[in-house]
Specification:
- The chain is an alpha+beta fold.
- The protein has helices at residues 14-18, 59-79, 126-135, 151-176; strands at residues 6-10, 30-41, 45-56, 87-99, 106-120, 139-147, 181-193, 200-201, 224-236.
- The protein has two domains: 6-40 and 150-195 and 225-236, 2-Layer Sandwich (Translation Initiation Factor IF3), CATH 3.30.110.170; 45-147, Protein of unknown function (DUF541), domain 2 (Alpha-Beta Plaits, 2-Layer Sandwich).
- It contains four helices and nine strands.
Amino acid sequence: MKSYFAVFAIVCTGLALAQDHSAPAIQPNTVFVGADGKFEASPDTAVLQFNISAQEKTSVAAYDRASRQAEQVRQILRANGVEPKAAEIGYFAIQPVYDYSQLKQKLIAYRVNANVTLKLKDFTKIAPITQQLADTDITGDQSLEYMLQDIDAAKTKAVEDAYRRARASADAVAHAGGRTLGELSYASVDTFENPRPMPMIMGQARMKAETAPAPTAEFSPQTITVTAHVNAMFTLK
């Protein structure tokens, strides 16, 4: 009777199991392994978000005030070497404001709200822009988070790390069984990006640049970890 050697050695985390590919059919003289890999990358983009809000007794007056505030934002951006078109408007709304203290609602004002998102590649611009926006008292709810836009390169590195680990596991199994590891005959890959941390809300805190450094000064942006899970089947010699 012809003998054969088939081994399964699976090493994976709970996250990988949730999206794991179905294992291929058992084949003689093969070893099937799974392994996780990761790559930590520095973020390449800072995402600054803030609101422009204005309230006046008439919609026209509220709109005009918001327009003046928006122009101040544009001037701040230009002063820091950033083109205003780099900032994106997420939404723009004009809403009535009512007084409900009496039995009947009463229209007392109009409020204009706009959400602005600014992506910066030059992290040295973050501190002066956020400080100047706060000092002008025209924006609210500032938040800052970091992201990795060039994610594909990080995914490739994570996959390479996972494959190295998978091959090392397969080689150990082959060696333990008195065999030699052969060629790769099957592989599947899953990649994952760690959830980003909640953005840091800056609010309207006042701080003079000459008395204290910016809150983010001298700190490094949190790295972004990309993980990958590789399933691989190798032949055995």
